[in-house]
Write a structure and sequence with these properties.
91% helix; mainly alpha; 113 residues; single chain; rod-shaped
Amino acid sequence: MDRQAQKEIKWVQILEVLVAAVVELAAVVAAVVTVVAAAAAAAVVVVVVVVVVVVVVALVAVVTPVAVLAVVIVEVAVIVCSSRSSSSSSSNSSSSSSSSSSSSISSSSSYCC
């Protein structure tokens, strides 16, 4: 064989090695991209779950004090109303002869309930 043919064979072999390396590199890049895409999808799911948990916790944190406050207000109103109605009924029975005092009692009991 002459020198020109040997040089051409060497170049062909070098090109074959380079093509094989590029194909291997492309396979590695594809695998890395697949793993990164899967990790990103998992991260999106984790972020969505975390956001939902944070929103639920925030809603519970806001709603619970408001509900407790509403219960306290209702209980105070019930206590005030029951004390007013009991005091007005006792006052009403003791002062049934006086018309002016009974009218003031009935007007004071109309503020509640």
